[in-house]
From TrEMBL:
Keywords: ATP-binding, Helicase, Hydrolase, Nucleotide-binding. Residues 216-376 form the Helicase C-terminal domain. Residues 539-553, 567-588 have a biased composition (Basic residues). One of its GO terms (molecular function) is helicase activity. Residues 531-588 are annotated as: Disordered. Belongs to the DEAD box helicase family. A motif (Q motif) lies at residues 2-30. Residues 2-30 form the DEAD-box RNA helicase Q domain. This is DEAD/DEAH box helicase. InterPro entries: DbpA/CsdA_RNA-bd_dom, DEAD/DEAH_box_helicase_dom, DEAD/DEAH_RhlB, DEAD_box_RNA_helicase, Helicase_ATP-bd, Helicase_C-like, Nucleotide-bd_a/b_plait_sf, P-loop_NTPase. Residues 34-205 form the Helicase ATP-binding domain. The keyword Cytoplasm does not apply.
Length: 588
């Protein structure tokens, strides 16, 4: 028997589920769907973003309403236009085999008369943002006096955005005898107030711990001087060549400024904030979903409803004003069973906030260092070599090979490789060779995860995300092979075709011995001490990118001198006409 069938779903829904490729219900679906199908009850469900909440309330609502009646029977309120459209589109997929069932999305930025016309033609389920819904009610464009089911999705987000009065007003136009289902990632007192005021003895379910963060997300923080915040952001991006991230700023002004600087420095970036027109928002989000934009700089309000499963990193350029907002930020990554990383850039005075967040999310942060110039150059060099190795040969090159061979005559293989790599690597190394250390000493009262370079060893391993590893999977694999405890392995950084990890130096001999001739699936898995780790004890200066005296402020303002079309795809769209075309010189 299909696992969804065990939840009590009917044949039409099960066929749609099969078409969409769903195989196993998520935890929130397993807990919510049977209860909502079997009972006319109110419900409060606490679950993180990306856990399948839309299906948890969508399946029961579709199955329980009368699709043959033209009356509006279901109302779903969501905080943003993006989330509203996303929910509506998903419900249309779920109700594929209900030909008479209509779902209408009601939101600002589109024709209100056209939305009213769709409702009037006969819409059983309305998905709406609070502001537009209140407007339509006041104009008598929609009738919700006969609804049987009301969903408050992302309830904490709606309240954070100031929709409390709108929600109260909307619910006052609904019948008292209805089922209200509240779904939220966190349970602040305002959400508890809504539940108490508008619900009767609600059934409660919790996925994970209240206000806790997803276990699929690794939390890291970096302590820098306030004036070096942007430089730290660039280094974190350069250390992760395949990054696909959301960068959070507190204000619209900072969001626009950071995005523009990233674009000028050659990164595929874009801004998302409240001052953009709806058309600009659509352009930016389309570019982000297609990964033309790989660093989306956003405010908390503008990022509500972003539902992209492949985000690798969330970067907190600034911490939010409300600590609980951090849970929503970090929930943008580590979705759909995948792992992710949430990075926080802070000043020394903000370090106490990390401990406050740890108490709320019930997870520990790892204190990490902003990568040095040498470390970044090493990673970029490995990335370039991997990119060359995995590039498919264009057969048209054959036509030019005789002339190319004449030009390169007399150069041996090793020298040719060095020259090829130096063409791209040289510009990057030139930029970083005078770059200083951005790290500020953290408070001594750290959480115990502040691993310095002294007393531990960093290793290179020739597997990465291309081989199916993320930081969680690789850490588990290494622990199993090395028979080490969880805390004995740290700073696990997975790139596309290689990775790095650290252990205490007392384990170095064991690590190297274990992987001296280690073979898996017919392939040798090589582990060696990272070159930078070997040089830590000798000091740097002889490698490209590391030499001589360094000026602490040397990389400020000069990013455009080495920037490129950073990720090998079309440039992301900026928010001014033509801003996506502003690119600096090519770099790898």
């Amino acid at each position: 028997m299909n696992k969804f069938e065990q939840l009590g779903l009917n044949e039409q829904l099960l066929k749609a589920i099969t078409d969409m490729g769903f195989e196993t219900p998520s935890e929130v679906q397993e807990k919510a769907i049977p209860v909502l199908l079997a009972n006319e009850t109110d419900m409060v469900a606490l679950a993180q973003t990306g856990t399948g909440k839309t299906a948890a309330f969508g399946f029961p609502m579709i199955q329980k309403i009368d699709a043959n009646s033209k009356t509006t029977q279901g109302l779903i309120l969501s905080p943003t236009r993006e989330l509203c459209l996303q929910i509506a589109n998903e419900l249309k997929l779920y109700s594929k085999y209900y030909p008479s069932l209509n779902v209408t999305a009601i939101y600002g930025g589109a024709s209100i008369t056209e939305q009213a016309r769709q409702v009037k033609r006969g819409t059983q389920i309305v998905v709406a943002t609070p502001g537009r819904m209140k407007d339509m009610i006041s104009r008598n464009m929609v009738d919700i006096s006969k609804i049987e089911y009301c969903v408050l999705d992302e309830a904490d987000e709606m309240l954070n955005m100031g929709f409390y009065e709108d929600i109260k007003d909307i619910l006052s136009h609904t019948p008292k005898e209805k089922s209200t289902w509240l779904f939220s990632a966190t349970m602040p007192k305002e959400v508890a107030t809504i539940a108490k005021k508008f619900m009767k003895n609600p059934h409660e379910i919790t996925v994970g711990t209240k206000n806790s963060a997803s276990e699929n997300v690794q939390h890291e923080y970096y302590v820098v001087s306030g004036r070096d915040r942007y430089l730290a952001l660039k280094r974190l991006a350069d250390t992760n060549p395949d990054i696909f991230s959301v960068v959070f700023c507190r204000t619209k002004r900072d969001t626009q400024k950071v995005a523009e600087r990233l674009i000028e420095d050659g990164y595929n970036a874009g801004a998302l904030h409240g001052d953009l027109s709806q058309n600009q928002r659509d352009i930016v989000m389309k570019a982000f979903r297609s990964q033309q934009i790989q660093m989306l700089v956003a405010t908390d309000v503008a990022a509500r409803g972003i539902d992209v499963d492949d985000i690798t990193h969330v970067i907190n350029y600034q911490l939010p004003d409300e600590i609980e907002t951090y849970t929503h930020r970090s929930g943008r990554t580590g979705r759909a069973g995948k792992s992710g990383i949430s990075m926080v850039i802070i000043t020394k005075s903000e370090q106490r906030k990390i401990h406050a967040i740890e108490r709320i999310i019930k997870q520990k942060f790892e204190a990490k260092k902003i990568p040095t110039a040498d470390e970044i150059c090493e990673i970029q060099l490995y990335h370039l070599a991997s990119k060359i190795k995995n590039t498919e040969i264009n057969d048209d090159v054959e036509n030019y090979l005789p002339a190319i061979n004449d030009v390169l005559e007399g150069i041996d293989r090793e020298e040719l490789i060095k020259k090829m790599v130096s063409v791209e690597f040289g510009r990057f190394a030139e930029y970083y060779k005078k770059a200083g250390d951005l790290n500020v000493a953290a408070n001594s009262s750290s959480n115990g995860n502040d691993y310095s370079s002294e007393g531990n060893t960093r290793y290179f391993i020739n597997v990465g995300s291309r081989d199916g590893y993320d930081w969680m999977v690789l850490k588990d694999f290494l622990r199993e092979q090395l028979q080490l405890e969880k805390d004995d392995l740290f700073k696990v950084d997975v790139k596309e075709s290689f990775s790095f990890f650290n252990t205490d130096s007392t384990h170095t001999e064991k690590v190297l011995a274990t992987f001296s001739e280690f073979k898996m699936d017919g392939r040798f898995i090589n582990v060696e001490v990272s070159k930078n780790a070997r040089e830590n004890s000798r000091g740097r200066g002889k490698r490209s990118g590391g030499g001589g005296k360094r000026s602490r402020r040397s990389d400020k303002g000069s990013g455009g001198n080495y920037g490129e079309k950073r990720f090998g795809k079309k440039g992301g769209k900026g928010n001014k006409p033509g801003s996506g075309k502003r690119r600096s010189k090519k770099r790898f």
